[in-house]
Structure prediction request, 217 residues.
Amino acid sequence: MVDTIHIIVGIMGNGASLLLYAAPILTFKRVIKKGSTEEFSCIPYAVALLNCLLYTWYGLPVVSCQWENLPVVTINGLGILLETSFIVIYISFALPVQKKLVILMMAAALVVFSTTALVSSTALHDHHQRKVFVGSIGLVASISMYSSPLVAVKRVIKTKSVEFMPFYLSFFSFLTSSLWMAYGLLERDLFLAAPNLLGCPIGLLQLVLYCIYRERK
Prediction:
């Protein structure tokens, strides 16, 4: 029974994550239409890309035992493609200063991921050690990913406007965090459950702020 629930939650988590990763499509449709990134920040997308890279690696048989974390691999693999696309679009329409910042962030993310993959595959010799090592770094990346919307939260409180904090991004962030927290708890995997313990309240905070300021211009 527990295994069945675990599989169902994993499938639901994949669905919610897909909607979360696809939610910025509306934002970047606006960016392309206006030819400007306006006040949108690329930090959440760069951090999300690093998170997807690390957890794709975490779920592969190199780190996990066989394919026990297949749902983690599939959705984060798709996340890599989507986040990369968003970042490329952002760079295309960003100001020179913004482009430089994003490129530096991308380079840093690739260095962190490459180093993590190299060390875990060569210096560590069993799945437990690899999961602890990769999971610990992934945990930090996930906490950073779920904390990055606080930049938008600060802007909402300051401007009393939710224009640059899209509702669907906040909603699916909360939903995804809730489902993956449940998935991690059912599997007794701290590295999957722990970051979502932070993601849930942050997502809820965004929704509360949206309800408060959505009528204001």
